[in-house]
Amino acid sequence: MRLLFFVTLLLTSACASQQVSVTTPTTPPENGQVVTGGSVTTAPSSTNTVDPVPARVAESDTTARPPWLKARITEVLAERKRNPITRILRYDYEGRKVYYISAPCCDQFSNVYDTQGKLICQPDGGITGKGDGKCPDFDKRKTNEKLVWQDPR
């Protein structure tokens, strides 16, 4: 508490000697712009900035989605939006096409399914972050990444 008081006092005295005012807006202006010293800047937005941005954007998968996958997408859309959002990616793994569905949150498992909708493994997530151990080489051996779907909300 003393440190906070000291820092506040230090900043107050430094700003007072240079006649600098520090303000923190609680609501953005109605027109979305802030005018300071004659220049106009865009006000900060309150949009969600927690969703991770992939390091690379996967090529889109334009093939037909199997019925079980369409049903899974419908289930996700019936739930509230997840953070991070659900992404479905298709890969080649062990000589076959597989679908990777991202985990809904935290220590939960991501799932890898074959084209028939059978669960193959859970390559990541869980308390250790290493999944269920059934495909420990998934990240190293997956190829040909295609984005099948991601929650648009």
UniProtKB/TrEMBL annotation:
Positions of the DUF6970 domain: 75-151
Pfam families (alphabetical): DUF6970 (PF22311)
Ranges of biased composition (kind: Polar residues): 33-50
Key words, A-Z: Signal
Chain segments carrying region Disordered: 22-51
Signal peptide coordinates: 1-18
Keyword flag Ubl conjugation: no
The protein, known as: DUF6970 domain-containing protein
Native source species: Hymenobacter monticola
